[in-house]
Model the fold of this input.
Amino acid sequence: MILGVGVDLCQVERIRRSLRGLGEAWIDELFTAEERRLCQLGADHALLFGRAFCGKEACFKALGTENTAEVGWRDIEILQSGSLASARLSGGALQRLQEITPPGHVVRVHVACAGGAGLAQAIVTISAVPVP
Done:
């Protein structure tokens, strides 16, 4: 069963401006050390940070929440390797995931990130299957 779906789209130039203007403080506020490492491995850092940012926003939507004191930016990690992406939830995001998961079910968080033509996007689907 589908528990939640979230989609987000952003302009890579907006992310590029944030990286230039806000720099390290912006990265530290929104991204974990592992996200940062993976985004900085690619040729276009702004595109990868944009995809990760969209993944976080899409995950907030799929969880039925928003960036709040209970669920922060760093509670959702979007881990990218080439064209593959996955999400790792902790803190308030993990708690929210547990709240929406029906008893006797195993939950999965599916992430798809893409980018091109100056845009980054992500789709997050949260599904649950009964425990056999």
Q: What stands out?
A: The CA atoms of residues 29 and 73 lie 7 Å apart. The first strand starts at residue 2 and ends at 11. The domain at 2-130 is CATH 3.90.470.20 (Ribosomal Protein L22; Chain A).
